[in-house]
Structures are given as structure tokens and as C-alpha cells.
Design goal:
This protein has 315 residues and is mainly alpha-helical. It has helices at residues 2-27, 40-46, 49-71, 74-77, 80-91, 95-104, 108-118, 124-176, 179-182, 185-234, 249-263, 269-276; strands at residues 288-290, 297-299.
Length: 315
């Protein structure tokens, strides 16, 4: 696996070398003849205006190849530090902390795992359905870039064919006008325009198709690797004991709302401050109990603590 990742990581450097060689070739003579030195730029100009559309497509192809080479890697989909944090949180039974890790570190793994952890209190079957749905959604997003390479592999030959047709039109126009008798270079230039466009379309299409099939297979390997990590993280979750547990943004809001009361001063400052607050006399028959969050005396059964504003659940 390490060798594969090393090969994939070094691909952008290879493509950079290819682009540099092409740029250098534009300045280097294409012919060793001293009488007529034709550079790559001269060849490109012979391709006519349609060739520049193919060149624009080639720039997009190189950009997509570089992006896929950097992005489609296992460390990008499931970073090891994130996996270690999730493993520790799940092992400790702190599923809210695992949800926080997923919420703060979006990637392929966390985008799939976050909604599953949020619904862990609904049972194993629900979690499996959520994992399947979100894994499919993320996989489609990762495959989208590869599909663009396939589209370029189809469009590039069409651009080349269009330039070929334009070049042949110019060639027959030269024949019809009798220009070949006075200047045979007109016919040769038109045929050159047609052939250069054909070659350019193929030069763009072949790398596009090769990149598409390579990165499509690489994406499938990444999806399998992420699924293995998720299975390892969730294999020992006691779903039966977690029935009805609340995990996610609602619990996070409740905890953050109670945090300011507990964060002021030392650990005993919040209860002391709460006891010093003026209290209204309880109505007749109302049972007063301490709040489980701030320890202030509150009427039993109220939905929200008037002191720390936390939502309460009564058995």
C-alpha cells in the first residue's frame, strides 16, 4: 500500500516534467535542417484556430490529472490522526466527542461517519442504512472528477476531427481556385492543418482516458479502505445499551449553554452563585429539587432550568 501511495504522490512531478518538456520543445527546432528550422510553435500555428481549442482542453486535462493525483489518496480520505481520535472516543464510549471530531474535520470518513454516530441511539439497522446512504453520496462526489476525464477523452477527438474537416475544406478550396499551380504550399498548408488537428485531439484524448480508468480504480480502492475503517470503529458499539441516547448538535447546544455557569471561577463557584440568587417562593404543593447542571433549586418537572437555561428531561 505504501508503494502505491508513493507512486501516486510522485505523479504530479511527472506531469510537471511533461509540461516543461512541451514548453521547451516549443523553443527547440523541430528539424535539423539549417535551411528551414520549424519549431513546435510553428507547428501549432499551422493547426489553425481549432487547434487552440484543443490546447485549452489539454490544459484542463492536466489540471484534472494533478487534482486527482493530490486528492484521490487514502490519507486524504481517512487521515490517520482523525482515525486515532475517533478510535479513542469510541473506545471510551464518548460518542459526543466522536461526533465533534467528525464535525470539525470534514473528509470522506467523517462525512460518512458523522450522521451514523448521531443516530447510534436508534439501533444497529438504522446506523447501517445511514452509513450506506452517505457512503454512496460521498463516493459519487469522488468519482465526479474522474468522469470529467472520460468526457474530455470523448470531446478531444471531436475537436480534432472538426479541425481536420476545416483543413480539408481549405485544401479543396485551394484546388478549386487553381492556387496549387501557382503556389503548391497552399495545398500542403491546408493538409498540414488537418493532420495537426487530428494528432492534437488524439494526444489529449489518450491521457484523458488513461487517467480516467486509473483514478476510477483508485477511487474504488479508497472507498473500500474507508469502509474497512468504519467497520473497525463501529464493530464493538453496544447499540442495545445506547437506545434513546441523544448525540449531535442538540446535545452540543445544551452542553455549551451550561458551560458558562460551570466555567466561571472554580468548580464550586457556579452552585454558590446560584444559591445566592434571589428565589421566588415555591407555590403550594410544588416540589423543589436541585438542577442536575447548576445545582440551583428548581421546581420539579419544568422543561428548562431558569438559572442555566439547560433543557431538562424528567423520568
Amino acid at each position: 500500500m505504501r508503494n502505491r501511495l508513493t507512486t501516486l504522490f510522485t505523479m504530479p512531478r511527472r506531469w510537471t516534467a511533461v509540461v516543461a518538456l512541451l514548453a521547451f520543445g516549443a523553443m527547440w527546432p523541430a528539424s535539423a535542417s539549417a535551411a528551414q528550422q520549424e519549431t513546435l510553435w510553428d507547428t501549432l500555428k499551422a493547426g489553425g484556430p481549432m487547434l487552440f481549442l484543443t490546447l485549452l482542453l489539454s490544459v484542463i486535462t492536466v489540471g484534472l490529472l494533478l487534482e486527482c493525483a493530490f486528492r484521490l489518496r487514502v490519507p486524504k480520505a481517512a487521515p490517520k490522526p482523525i482515525v486515532d481520535q475517533l478510535q479513542k472516543a469510541v473506545t471510551d464510549g464518548n460518542y459526543q466527542e466522536a461526533w465533534r471530531v467528525c464535525d470539525k474535520n470534514p473528509c470522506f470518513l467523517t462525512n460518512v461517519l458523522k450522521p451514523a454516530i448521531q443516530r447510534v441511539g436508534r439501533g444497529k439497522e438504522t446506523v447501517r442504512e445511514i452509513l450506506g446512504d452517505h457512503a454512496l453520496k460521498e463516493a459519487m462526489g469522488w468519482r465526479a472528477r474522474c468522469s470529467y476525464l472520460s468526457m474530455i477523452g470523448v470531446i478531444a477527438p471531436m475537436f480534432g476531427l472538426m479541425g481536420t474537416v476545416v483543413g480539408m475544406i481549405h485544401a479543396f478550396a485551394a484546388l478549386a481556385g487553381g492556387g496549387i499551380i501557382a503556389d503548391p504550399t497552399k495545398l500542403a498548408g491546408a493538409i498540414s492543418e488537418a493532420l495537426v488537428n487530428t494528432a492534437a485531439g488524439l494526444f489529449v484524448a489518450v491521457p484523458g482516458f488513461m487517467g480516467f480508468y486509473f483514478f476510477r480504480n483508485k477511487t474504488q480502492e479508497i472507498i473500500v479502505a474507508v469502509e474497512d475503517v468504519i467497520n473497525i470503529l463501529l464493530e464493538d458499539v453496544p447499540y442495545e445499551q445506547l437506545q434513546g441516547i441523544k448525540i449531535g448538535p442538540q446535545l452540543e447546544a445544551e452542553l455549551s449553554g451550561a458551560a458558562p455557569a460551570a466555567a466561571s471561577g472554580d468548580a464550586t463557584a457556579a452552585p454558590a452563585a446560584a444559591s445566592e440568587m434571589p428565589k421566588a417562593a415555591p407555590a403550594e404543593g410544588v416540589v423543589m429539587v436541585p438542577c442536575p447542571n447548576c445545582n440551583a433549586q428548581i421546581p420539579q418537572g419544568i422543561p428548562t432550568c431558569p438559572n442555566c437555561k439547560s433543557t431538562l428531561e424528567w423520568a
